[in-house]
Amino acid sequence: MTDFALLSTPSDWLPELRRRLVEAYRANGLPAGAAEAFVDQRAEKADGWTAAAVLDADGRRVGQVVLSTGDEQGRLLGRIRELWTDPALDPDGAHRRAALAWARGWCAEQGAYRISVGLTAPDELFADYPVRGQARLKDLTDPAEVPAGASHRPLTEAEYEEWVAEGMERYAGDILRAGSGTPEQARRKAEEDYRQLLPQGRETEQTALVVLEADGEAIGHAWLKHQHLPGVSYGYSLDVAPRFRGRGHGRAAMALGEQAVRAAGDRALMFTVWGGNEVAMNLYTATGYRVLEETRSQDL
After folding, report:
1. Which GO terms describe its molecular function (predicted)?
2. Where does the pLDDT of residue 173 fall: very low under 50, low under 70, confident under 90, or very high at 90 and above?
3. Is the four-CA dihedral 194, 197, 202, 207 of positive or negative sign?
4. CATH superfamily of this structure's domain 139-299
5. Which of 3, 65, 135, 200 is the most buried if burial means most Cβ atoms within 10 Å?
6. What is the mean pLDDT of residues 206-222?
7. Do 136 and 285 meet the contact criterion of CB atoms below 8 Å apart?
């Protein structure tokens, strides 16, 4: 038998959640300061989350489940912030399975259409939840060697508008492929995200918009946010134009992006790849990018 008791204040559950999550991110390669900053960013709204202790038949606390809800393109999404039980007190995982059922019921009661979870390691409990995206990370202490003839330069003002239009279209396509919205919702999210992330266009602080070149010809673009976390840049996009694909330029583009990150003073690069993009996932794995966290979700 498994029971649940709501925890009224974050001090009852947040310190341990934070500790476990920092440890997991560090184990996946994120530097200590960046891991702590990453967790702190996510926990800024923890006062609005709902947490419950997982109890065994004797009323002993064997774990906790932490949940929240939020908007996803006009629909309510339920999120599992943590679902943890002590392996020594839950050896067969029965309490974890009960906690997942409780989490799904709670999210459904709030009106959520889907429940999402971020995994820092493979978890059989969520094996049938479709992958919606992955956060990837690479330590650039030894960045990839830039091939001969490959280089990068800043995006010009004359190139900016076309780059934005093409980028929003590609981003909306990624959202659709991941199963995260309708065409109209995907288009609207792309427009909103570009507007929020580039408030000053090319002059947005700590932002690098880069043209990737091979033998003097533009083959793609990179959009980087430096100091996204301490010592870590975030890649919003790094792409090769369709007509240049299949020629080995993908690896060259990754090497050029890493070179730009190192030149800005950061020592690691992270980014998100959407679910369903197996070609990109395989490239990132082959070029040394580890999975920092994988997002999975399932309709309720």
Report:
1. acyltransferase activity, transferring groups other than amino-acyl groups
2. confident
3. negative
4. Gcn5-related N-acetyltransferase (GNAT) (3.40.630.30)
5. 65
6. 87
7. no
